[in-house]
Automatic annotation (TrEMBL):
<keyword id="KW-0436">Ligase</keyword>
<feature type="domain" description="GS catalytic">
    <location>
        <begin position="67"/>
        <end position="395"/>
    </location>
</feature>
<dbReference type="InterPro" id="IPR027303">
    <property type="entry name" value="Gln_synth_gly_rich_site"/>
</dbReference>
<comment type="similarity">
    <text>Belongs to the glutamine synthetase family.</text>
</comment>
<dbReference type="InterPro" id="IPR008146">
    <property type="entry name" value="Gln_synth_cat_dom"/>
</dbReference>
<dbReference type="InterPro" id="IPR014746">
    <property type="entry name" value="Gln_synth/guanido_kin_cat_dom"/>
</dbReference>
<keyword id="KW-0460">Magnesium</keyword>
<dbReference type="Pfam" id="PF00120">
    <property type="entry name" value="Gln-synt_C"/>
</dbReference>
<protein>
    <submittedName>
        <fullName>Glutamine synthetase</fullName>
    </submittedName>
</protein>
Length: 395
């Protein structure tokens, strides 16, 4: 398979001037199956299976432009310390009508227009969809937990269980394929667009992670409510890298519609205990489960790149022994904080920040920069109100 296949834009086009295309003769890489094996695709008719692969060159070296390899590169650094990262995702999505408008209540036939956060009634109304979805999770080996009705009309969240970080990323990627496929079978469209409905809440992908030592002990657990110094070092690393990493959390121009201050999508680099207004949250719970929740990424992101960015930044903080500022108590939106890049072009420019070079291979950063610059030029010719048809099917 050509290396360039892993470096196309959202429209499926080669990247102009990419060294992976004509300059290299559009050379082939070598796809190798991951350890996941064949995964059933229950939303399709017949006995269809997907076999996940990742990319190497012919000498067996990992292809730096493969997002899964980027995460493996970060996890190898944890493994070298005798540590295993455990991670989980919380992923939000919207169900829309096939006409891309508000979804109708399957029971009453009326369009859903009101917020119904944590509504059991709304979940009940979509019971056939969720029954099929959870049966498919079981068939695919995806450990899904609770589904909740979120704030927006037809918006839902499903939490996946903590597990080794690579498996968590694999499951998040498969999860998104599955939700979209099952929705089509129910004459709906599912989208993970960061902000598919202008006046409704956006879709996020929150990442939770902890780190186990060789004895299986959580290195963030100090036996109390505050967590260890290593926890704080990891938080400091996440905060320091956050502005430069904006593009990994908001990869498209439309992603920035979600990043509005005061709208439950953090735009400032801050942390706190059990505080949902901050970007990096330490959830409440028993000390043995002490973990970090990174709340910035949108639902339209690549799970491998998001986990690589978050975990790579955390490791930088741990290795440097840096400490974060004091935790925020109360409303972080009222504070003056270091901010994410506030536009797509600024986020692309931030890829030149040296803090990223210790996390990602420079080839991946260069490929990503070229890809996003091409997409930026393409969307400049499309009115903002017309972006959705170009994004709905692929995000």
């Amino acid at each position: 398979m050509p290396f360039s296949v892993l470096n196309v834009d959202i429209f499926g086009r080669d990247i102009e001037g990419s060294p992976l295309v004509f300059a290299s003769g559009d050379a082939d890489g070598l796809l190798q199956p991951t350890d996941r094996g064949a995964v059933p695709m229950p939303w399709l008719d017949g006995d269809a299976h997907l076999v996940p692969h990742w990319m190497f060159d012919e000498s067996g070296q990992a292809f730096a432009g493969d997002p899964r390899q980027a995460l493996a590169r970060v996890l190898d650094r944890f493994s070298a310390k005798g540590w295993q990262v455990m991670a989980a995702t919380e992923i939000e999505f919207h169900l829309l009508s096939n006409a891309q408008g508000p979804i109708e209540n399957p029971v009453t036939g009326h369009a859903l227009v009101h917020d119904n956060i944590l509504s059991l009634n709304e979940l009940d109304q979509f019971e056939p969809f969720f029954n099929d979805l959870y049966a498919s999770f079981a068939a695919m080996g995806i450990p899904a937990q609770a589904a909740t009705s979120e704030a927006g009309p037809g918006q839902f969240e499903i939490d996946l269980t903590h597990q080794p970080a690579m498996r968590a990323a694999d499951d998040a990627a498969l999860f998104k394929m599955l939700v979209k496929g099952v929705a089509r079978n129910h004459d709906m469209a599912a989208t993970f667009m960061a902000k598919p409905i202008t006046d409704a809440p956006g879709n996020g992908m929150h990442v939770h992670f902890s780190v186990l030592d060789t004895d299986g002990r959580n290195i963030f657990d100090d036996g109390g409510n505050q967590g260890t110094a290593v926890l704080r070092h990891a938080i400091a690393g996440c905060l320091a890298a956050m502005p430069a990493q904006t593009l990994f959390f908001a990869p498209f121009g439309a992603s920035f519609d979600r990043l509005v201050p005061g709208a439950h999508a953090p735009t400032g680099a801050a942390w706190g205990f059990d505080n949902r207004t901050v970007a990096v949250r330490v959830p409440a719970g028993p000390p043995a489960a002490r973990r970090i929740e990174h709340r910035v990424a949108g639902g339209d992101t690549n799970p491998y790149l998001v986990l690589a960015a978050v975990l790579g930044a955390a490791l930088q903080g741990i290795e440097a022994g840096t400490m974060p500022p004091a935790p925020v108590i109360g409303d972080a939106y009222d504070l003056k904080l270091p901010q994410l890049a506030d536009s797509w072009d600024q986020a692309i420019a931030a890829l030149a920040d040296p803090i990223l070079f210790g996390i990602f291979h420079t080839d991946l950063l260069d490929n990503l920069r070229r890809t996003k610059q091409q997409e930026l030029r393409s969307f400049a010719d499309i009115p903002h109100d017309n972006w959705m048809p170009h994004l709905l099917e692929v995000l």
